[in-house]
């Protein structure tokens, strides 16, 4: 049997943790291997416990920080060389040296002053391994330069701690996102947006929930109900201020929920949409109707959702009556031209990460011009044109949404954007397209929170 010789210090890699280069002290006097990490916190469920931690792999460069996560194997009391006993989390991971890989157990401890970020104990050594205590680096040397190219390599898949902000934990979309996250090895928590409260301060703001401070999440998926848009976006802003990636940003949610604001943004970007007018004064009702080309026309409350608060006025007199009713309620509304050639149909394009991942054609009931599925409409798969695809992608981009449902009408002069939804439902689009949209969303989140290359210059250690 060929001897595998190790010196008292060696370079190694922990690929499962996304650590391509670690300098370790080999100590046969210690039974247990240890990784010197910080910000160590457990997460996940009782049957699938996880642990998340950060590590500065180069002791001389505190700006080089890598976030890791792994399944938790155990919690164990470990006594250090100075006689101190502490309860540590235990993980199992793969170690690699000179092309040879094998599994080892590693404990996690916050000992940032140590010269080596890892201690390799005797339980991690196979029978054919020999340690020469007077030699150093018997195996090939690595370099901390490996971390400089971390974003140019295939992103390391690590378990993420995710949260979905919703007041509907049992609806289809929430359950689909949770299932998709768990299938990919992540942990997802459901947070009721209305029960969050915030500690706002200059450094290290916090979000609290049911009497506890929420931990750091790798990403948050906001699914903010229309009735709490203002408070919900405030919670999202707080997470953004704490450095958490939010699938739908507070600015994008705010723009998409205010139909007037949304149409102004779309118009500024020269994205096609039905001719739109807005006013509040009763004196303007006649001219308002003329601005969109007369009846038939569509009137929409600014914060309408799922087709509610949307009315088709087939005659000028009917339009004036609806406008009068809306103004009597002191409600803000839009007036839009009716795209007759759409024939009661629209197209929902689901955009994730700058790509249309699915689309469907929705058709209203025979006696209803609205095509919303919540209003009894039906859906079928549809092949969209290149122009429709480009318009949907541009609309999501200018609304600053990484995931969005973009509703289009097929007009005689090209596609027209009706609405951009920041919290699109998954049930209709998944069942119609037969695509796992929830998994595509989680996959996009993985790419957004992949390890980033350090800002500081990475130095090679002496020797």
TrEMBL record:
GO CC list: cytoplasm
Keyword field contains Transmembrane: no
Pfam families, sorted: RimK, Rimk_N, Zn_protease
GO BP, sorted A to Z: SOS response; translation
Keyword Disulfide bond: no
Record-annotated ATP-grasp domain positions: 263-446
Annotated signal sequence range: none
Any one GO MF annotation of this record: metal ion binding
SUPFAM superfamilies: Acid proteases, Glutathione synthetase ATP-binding domain-like
Keywords: ATP-binding, Ligase, Magnesium, Manganese, Metal-binding, Nucleotide-binding, Protein biosynthesis
Cofactor(s) this protein cannot do without: Mn(2+); Mg(2+)
Family statement drawn from the similarity comment of this UniProt entry: In the C-terminal section; belongs to the RimK family.
Name the UniProt record assigns to this protein: Probable alpha-L-glutamate ligase
Organism: Salipiger pallidus
Source species taxonomy: Bacteria, Pseudomonadati, Pseudomonadota, Alphaproteobacteria, Rhodobacterales
Name of the gene: rimK
């Amino acid at each position: 049997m060929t001897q595998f010789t190790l010196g008292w210090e060696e370079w190694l890699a922990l690929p499962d943790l996304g650590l391509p280069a670690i300098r370790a002290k080999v100590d046969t006097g210690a039974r247990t291997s240890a990784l010197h990490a910080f910000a160590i916190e457990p997460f996940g469920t009782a049957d699938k416990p996880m642990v998340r931690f950060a590590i500065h792999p180069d002791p001389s460069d505190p700006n080089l920080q890598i976030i890791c996560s792994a399944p938790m194997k155990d919690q164990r009391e470990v006594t250090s060389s100075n006689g101190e006993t502490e309860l540590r989390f235990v993980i199992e991971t793969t170690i690699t040296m000179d092309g040879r890989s094998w599994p080892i157990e590693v404990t996690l401890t916050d000992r940032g002053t140590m010269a080596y970020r890892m201690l390799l104990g005797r339980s991690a050594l196979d029978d054919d391994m020999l340690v020469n205590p007077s030699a150093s680096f018997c195996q090939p040397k690595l370099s901390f330069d490996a971390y400089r190219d971390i974003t140019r390599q295939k992103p390391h898949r690590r378990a993420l701690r995710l949260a979905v902000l919703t007041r509907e934990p049992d609806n289809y979309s929430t359950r689909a996102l949770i299932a998709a996250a768990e299938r990919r090895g992540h942990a997802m928590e459901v947070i009721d947006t209305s029960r969050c409260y915030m500690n706002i301060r200059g450094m290290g703001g916090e979000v609290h929930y049911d009497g506890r401070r929420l931990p750091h999440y790798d990403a948050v998926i906001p699914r903010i109900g229309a009735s709490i848009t203002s408070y919900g976006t405030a919670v999202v802003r707080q997470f953004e201020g704490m450095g958490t990636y939010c699938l739908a940003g507070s600015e994008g949610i705010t723009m998409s929920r205010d139909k007037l604001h949304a149409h102004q943004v779309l118009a500024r970007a020269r994205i096609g949409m039905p001719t739109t007018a807005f006013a509040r004064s009763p004196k303007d009702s006649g001219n308002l109707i003329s601005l969109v080309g007369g009846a038939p026309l569509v009137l929409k409350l600014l914060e309408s959702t799922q087709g509610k608060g949307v009315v088709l006025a087939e005659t000028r007199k009917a339009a004036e009556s609806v406008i009068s009713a809306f103004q009597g309620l002191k409600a803000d509304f839009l007036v839009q031209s009716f795209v007759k050639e759409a024939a009661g149909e629209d197209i929902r394009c689901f955009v994730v990460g700058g790509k249309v991942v699915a689309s469907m054609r929705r058709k209203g009931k025979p006696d209803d011009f609205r095509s919303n599925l919540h209003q009894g409409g039906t859906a079928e798969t549809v092949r969209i044109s290149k122009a429709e695809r480009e318009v949907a992608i541009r609309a999501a981009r200018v609304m600053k949404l990484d995931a969005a449902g973009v509703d289009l009408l097929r007009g005689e002069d090209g596609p027209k954007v009706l609405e951009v939804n920041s919290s699109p439902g998954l049930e209709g689009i998944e069942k119609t397209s037969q695509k796992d949209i929830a998994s595509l969303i989680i996959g996009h989140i993985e790419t957004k929170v992949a390890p980033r290359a350090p800002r500081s210059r990475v130095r090679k250690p002496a020797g």
